[in-house]
UniProtKB/TrEMBL annotation:
Aminotransferase class I/classII large domain residues: 20-338
Taxonomic superkingdom: Bacteria
GO MF terms, alphabetically ordered: pyridoxal phosphate binding; transaminase activity
The protein's name in its UniProt record: Histidinol-phosphate aminotransferase family protein
UniProt keyword Transferase present: yes
Amino acid sequence: PFFKEYLPENLREFPILEAKLNANENPYGPSPMALEALKKSAAGGNRYAWKELFQLVDKIAEFEGVAPKNIMMGPGSSDLLEKTAMVLFMNGGNVVSADPAYMSLIRVAEAAGGTWKPVPLKNDWSHDLKAMEEAIDSETKLVYICNPNNPTGTTTDAAELLDFCSRISERVPVFVDEAYLWFLEDGTEQSMVSLINEGKDVIIARTFSKIHGMAGLRVGYAIAQETTLDKIQKITRAGMGISYPSVFAAMGAMDDTEFLESSRRQNMACREYVYESLTQMGLEYVPSHTSFLIFPIEMEGKDFLKKMTDLKVGVRAFNFMNRNWCRVSMGTMDEMKLFTAALGQVLT
Ligand code: PLP
């Protein structure tokens, strides 16, 4: 594995940023309807959200077109990725995924006793499904696919992925992380959720942290077969970590389609602006389908982060495919202007 991520050395001392573009948050959220629901429900915080969590589960099940028994809730999808990894890898085994990929599930799988079998993305940045299939062996406990992928912001053809998940899940469960799905214009068509009603052993993760703008409110869910969810929930009670007001905020957010549409639009406008600015600076970039994008930098990641942070702009730096990369999240247009100005200064 050659994937390397650079993190700020001390998060506590992380300076006040003027443009916080390092965690793929939505600068516009929470939505007006989510905020309203949050305010109204705050006083209910003396109660556990048992009944209310079921209301949210029912609402999600209806939205996804699956049964409530196929839904597992968590305080953010990180919780569900990590719990899945803990349960599946406590007796070893390997996880097959792309490289680079979003590392949260993989790191916990390794910590629990498993190993990572990375398969490089193809030159067009899509998953190398053929090579991933070949990488599966008798020790493979899970295939992890992030689509659209983080940190690259790129997608894999939905029809090919559907065929892959459908066939492979007969041998080994496939986890599809769809955190950024709703930034696609045809997200519903690109989802793998239809496989649930076909009885396939796929686990799909979704989050309210991204397009819904609720990263700090912590709500996410997984959609999977009941037997798979039972295995995980026997060991951990997945929904217990979600606060009473967050349950209501999530229900409000689901209804606020106007906010979701405006987030998607503004995100696209920022992406176009960054593409143009990078081109003007003579820089390449990887066209993105998400709320962030990557581009190669001719500078060591740690130095680059330090220089950008000194200018009060927070981004991320990675090294993969023998190159250094900057990943920048889409903030407000004003933040993106601070970013391009800082980048111009750092690179010249
Ligand atoms: N999956 C992907 C691909 C992500 O990029 C993130 C967050 O950045 C997560 C999952 C976890 O987000 P959360 O725990 O806020 O749902």
